[in-house]
Every structure is written in structure tokens, then in C-alpha cells.
Amino acid sequence: MSAKALLASALVAVAGLVLATSVVAQTENQVAFVHAASAEQRLRYLATAQIWSDSGDVSPEMIIAGQPMKASEEFEAALRGQPLPCGFAQAGKALGGNTPKFSCLTPGGATIRVKYSDGSKDGNREIFSAVVASRLLWALGFISDPIYPITIDCADCPENPMSGSGARARRSYLATFQPQVNRLAIVEGYNADQGWRWGELDEAITKLPDGPLRTRQRTHFDALTLLGVFIQHGDRKPEQQRLECRGPLDPRAGEAHPLEGNDGGAPVFFERPDSSACSEPAIALQDIGATFGGAGRMSKSTAKMNLQAWASRPIFKSAKPASAGDVPECRGNLIVSMAAGEGGRGDPRIGEAGRAFLLDRLLLLTDAHVRALMATARVEKLSEPPAWRDPATGTSYVGPEAWVAAFKDKVRQISERRCAP
Predict the structure, then answer these.
(1) Which of 288, 290, 354, 364 has its CA at a distance of 20 to 30 angstroms from the CA of residue 345?
(2) pLDDT for 237-263, tens place per residue?
(3) 158 in Cβ contact with 167 (< 8 Å)
């Protein structure tokens, strides 16, 4: 099925969207986050958290529609590809972070924050990569926040919406919208953005007792780690990952109190010592925009939706010689950002069970699935025409098909490798 036909089919799916992303049920009152009883309790949550779940049969049409969400009429139209009218509300520099963004007010009265691109060669490529990465993770069964591609029709945007400077005029931008869905983070201390480090999760799983739980967690973690290499997710500082509670809190395990100095803010749920308030901890990747390029010590433009940089990075480092009859150790080929530090685990070790698990998931994706990923990200609107030459066959590809061919080549690399346990 062509990308145009897939887009047409997806319109039917979008029309009846309902909220499927989980909204956490907490205590009687909304709480800001869970203050774990101790550092050790947080690590127990981390070691046993859900990493993967069966996403079922995700069709190409479902990939284009994205994770179902409850949307107003104006947002349904925007998800179908119609420009979303809005009035400029706040410059991106006041919203935090360095990615070009701004907030605007829709005719329906909703103030939304959007990330945008001005369409230039050096424009924000995250509006492409974040869509592909989030939908790929969702389709494979890993948790990521939903991101939707839209077009913004801003009636009075300044020349530079990020800084807020320049003459006001009507301007149109390719953009992404991420709905505000409550996620109940579990942290040690008072920083709701504490997140987790890849190294500490790796070590926490290693310390689990021998048995089915540790085997499952190791398999799923290694699969997620390899997927991080696949998409070149190197910007992995702790706040890019989230430890969350996806089920109701046990009110007997603690109490909710307001934080001192946070008048009017939601209270924090404080666990009692030796108690466990959350029966369904889970881990999520919550910022995966610097992907599908070539990860490095700094998140340059080549780290985001850059075909040449992405395709030129082999999945695995060259294998070191192994003893006779042994399978060599597998190391993923990934440079992590300076902000991620040692805990970001560059060139991570991948076990055979995790490699085989991820491969099984990737092989469920047909060419139509991959085309759907690229179509919904609108890769045809990148500033340069994609082109890639398969080094094995010499076949050249252009346009979205170049991304599809490079994607399949990376799957091939995983299928042809065997790793030590």
C-alpha cells in the first residue's frame, strides 16, 4: 500500500480516537509525584519495573494515526493534516530547553506548547525524529510519550518564535504536539525529573536474585538497550528517562502532603518506611528527539533525522576475538552525550537473549510499517532529498524509500549477529 493510501486509511482511525494512554489513578487527591521511602526502595522499583509489554497487532494505519487520544474537533482536524490556527502566546525561551518551541492559543481556548521548524537547512529536525522514534517504540511494545505531527498556522507569530523577537506576521510551521498526560513519577527526594541512568538500571537488574524475574528483566532491558543503539539515542541524561507508577497508589503505604514553599501545588505522596505504594512500576523514554542520526558527545543537527549519519553507523562494534567455540561479546555502537555521563553507558553490552528478543519484534514490521513511520514523520519535507546506497548490493535509493532501505539494513545487521549470553 502506498504512503498516500495509508494516510487516507488512517483518517478513519483518527476519527474515533479515545484516550488510551494510561492516566494514573492515585489517591483521592491528585499528587505531584511519589517520594520513595528510601534510595533502596527506588532501586527495587527500578529493577522490577515493566520494560516491555505486548503491543498486539499494530498495523501501518495505526502507526500513522498514532497512540489513540481523546481530542477536540479542532485537534482531530489537525491530526488529519489540516493546519491548526493559533495565536502566539509565549516565546520558547521561557518554556525551558534549547529545542525551538513556543506556546500558542487555539480558537477553542487551549494553550498548547509546540516544537517547530522554520524549514531551513539548519531547522529543527526533532519534529521528524521524535515522531518516528516514539511510534517505533510504541509499535514494538516499549513505553514512550505520544507525539503528533501537526501544521501550525500562527496568525501573529514573531519572526523568531523561540526568542519572541522580530516583526509579527502570519506564519506557518511544521510542528509536533505532545499532549499533557499525567505521569506519576517515582523519585528519591524532591526532584520530579530525577529519572534514571542506564547504568544504574543495568546494575539493579544484575543484583536481582537468580530466577525468572531477573531473566525477563535482563532480556527486556538488553532489547531496549539495543533499540537505543538502533535509533542512535545518545542524548540519554537521567531526565530523558522516567520511572513511573502506572497503577493506583496504595493509600495505606503513605500519606500525601504539600511541599513546603509550594503553595497551591499538588501534594507529594510520601511512602512510609518499609512500605510499597506502587504495584505497577514502569520505565519510559520521555525525550527521544535526538535520534535517527549519528549520536555524539554533543547533540548536533546530525544527531537528529540525518540519513547519512544514521545509516553510516553500524549497529555493533567490531567483535573482539573469542576463545575457540565461544560466541564473541556484542557491544552496541553508540556514543553518549557528555550530559549523560558514565551512567549513560556508551557502547553498551548486549546479551543474546535481548538481541533475539528485539529481532523478533522488528521482524514483525513489514515494509508498509516502515513506510508508515516515515510518512507520518513527513520525511519528504526534510531540507535535503534523502538518498542512500546499499553497500552490499550497490542499489541506490532516494526519497522515503532510502529511509526504508537503511532501516531494513540495520535489521539485517541484528539478524546476522550472534552474541554471548
Answers:
(1) 364
(2) 999 999 999 989 999 999 998 887 666
(3) yes
As a dihedral over the C-alpha atoms of residue 310, residue 315, residue 319, residue 324, rounded to 10 degrees, the angle is -160
pLDDT, tens only, 150-174: 999 999 999 999 999 999 999 999 9
Q: What are phi and psi for residue 7, nearest 5 degrees?
A: -60, -40
C-alpha cell at 229: 543503539
Kindly report the backbone phi and psi dihedral angles of residue 415, in degrees, each rounded to the nearest multiple of 5, phi listed first.
Answer: -70, -30
Q: What residue type is 89 in one-letter code? A: A
Interacting residues of 20 by C-beta distance below 8 A, sequence separation 6+: 67, 68, 69
- Which residues are within 8 A (CB) of 420 and not within 5 positions of it... i.e. 6 or more apart? 322, 326, 327, 328, 329, 330, 351, 352
- Each domain of the chain, given as residue ranges in start order, spans 3-63+181-415, 73-128+143-177
pTM for this prediction: 0.90
